[in-house]
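#dry-run=false #mode=assembly
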Amino acid sequence: MTKTVPKYIEIADWLRQNIQDGTFKTGERLITEHSLCEKFNISRHTARSAIAVLEKEDLVVRRQGDGTYINLDVGAKQKNIGLLLTDSSCYTFPNTISGVEEVLSAKGHRITLALSQNKVEIERNQLLSLQAANIDGLIVEAVKSALASPNLDIYKDFAAQNIPVVFVNTYYPRLDCNYIINDDVEASRIATGHLINQGHQKIGGIFKLDSIQGALRYEGFVNKLYGQNLKLDEHRVLWYSDETLDYLFSNEQFPLLSEALSDCTAVLCYSDRVALKLIEASPKLGLRIPHDLSIASFDDSILSRLATPSITSVTHPGPEMGNLAATSLLKMIEIPSHKMQHAYTPTLTIRDSVRDLS
Amino acid sequence: MTKTVPKYIEIADWLRQNIQDGTFKTGERLITEHSLCEKFNISRHTARSAIAVLEKEDLVVRRQGDGTYINLDVGAKQKNIGLLLTDSSCYTFPNTISGVEEVLSAKGHRITLALSQNKVEIERNQLLSLQAANIDGLIVEAVKSALASPNLDIYKDFAAQNIPVVFVNTYYPRLDCNYIINDDVEASRIATGHLINQGHQKIGGIFKLDSIQGALRYEGFVNKLYGQNLKLDEHRVLWYSDETLDYLFSNEQFPLLSEALSDCTAVLCYSDRVALKLIEASPKLGLRIPHDLSIASFDDSILSRLATPSITSVTHPGPEMGNLAATSLLKMIEIPSHKMQHAYTPTLTIRDSVRDLS
DNA sequence: AATTATTTGTGCGTATGTATC
DNA sequence: AGATACATACGCACAAATAAT
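#status=ok
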């Protein structure tokens, strides 16, 4: 039953153990081939085969006429970390990258970057490509996280290969995984609560339907409304996906948009991007912001700061999130049992897009 | 005198030649070890050593009980491309990345990303790290390109190792290199020309002193002024570097800034970022934009679109630049003699920050 | 389903070459 | 110059995996 392990593999294992234990110190000479033969009573060829294994692993360097030396960088080996993000045009993109990069480059590791364009097919290809690139860990932004993903098998492959994965911003609820996110339900409660505090009662919403963040922000929205004994009028809620955002603000959809908003005094927008689109469309809708319609949104990005009027928006952790993701991932590489599931508690940055009705 | 080449190396060379010639077709079985022994009248051990060389080069795969197969991806091997950018907070950053990524991932290559934070020391470390990462090519944004770089030796190393390098956005003038840039002199002429056309004669400038782009934009600025028989008053020109930008707009430097601008009807700003800072500082300076002071700048970014007033700005190629860089680099990997030095001709996007005095 | 031939993998012994200290 | 250590090379035997019969 016991599968026979080749001698040279056993001896390679023994050598590797001793290198990692520190019995053979880094930079020093390894035991010579001849000594190895005597010690284990093996042929020279077998000894050489064993050392060849370590050489291929970059653990040792052979120098003819001199000896075999243990590579200096044992344990401190440069890791290759995959970073798979959805969308370069998203304003969280540079933040996430710089947060991750800061931690990894400080420790001499490197980043293999890929983009999924928020498409599951591309995500699949990129995951396969990253697998082929021999990454030691992966930081990834889930694609269309609210919908069933066809790529969970690959994520499970990573787990089976003991390659740790950390999700940032979004994650797949059906997958038992590590993630670092904003507390989107709470974020939405905060923003909705602010609108209610300012005297708004007829509040609409524009949410993203394919991202789990959309579902969570909707949850917080509904949650807060009912908590304050307000009713949710579903006619005031609009849903979009990456593919239909422009369509939602197009001329064809204008009546729908107009009708949904005409009944509201305030709207909660899924993101600053959406809020900005709404502000830009407001003249056409005959609505002055915030006089006729107040807007609150998410991400507290440069858009919310520069828009006219500036937009009241819930904060996003920014580079810190990438930071924590990278730190956690490195810990998981060291200690495979390490887990990380973290949600940041956001705050609200109040600007000029909400009118006080009270 | 002739250095004796080991038999197994010779035979490995012979095999490699035949693989690359197509004599042994990809995907097919290589000649068996036994046949190789007979053909060259060598021992099996030597034959195995020869094949081991090719195996290490990933040219062949051995399958016990079956045979040795030539790897399918000879020549079409996944390349590892280094991408070293300066600053993630710069608005060209996502554009450059997505342009590069689009081309490379379409061909199955991968990107090793690093950031230099526009610091030469960090650039050096990252270049060394990229060298260790075995990249097949490098796309890089030069750090402080107007100043003497201590890292040109590494760039020369890359050249010596036949690893092609393409600079984007900026390059080192002292290095004979491939680059893809915006035509900054022309860009500056266009912007300055527009200010002059709108009747401005007292025109100031705020330029970046450590980037070659700063020097080129200054050149275009001066060039156009003198071309239109206007004089350059050096009191109206301010210089900054990444480290001193905030200082320039600080309270301590306020008198300097105020004095330089009080004499102008228009200012040419090095970037939308600077223009925005100036707009934000304008109330403190007692200047209404564009009524008292007109502003033109560079990059045509989201900032210029959203600022109040919106900023007249010279266009930047955007993702196209990264696109061309990646395409060129791949061509250089294929054909080492290939060169690329390209400058985009920009245009001007006119917005609300320039007042017509005529 | 079992056998057989083929092919690569593991292992031993020996000898000589070559680089380094 | 000599000792030492790794590199190359020959020959043999058997194990393990695969494909074809």
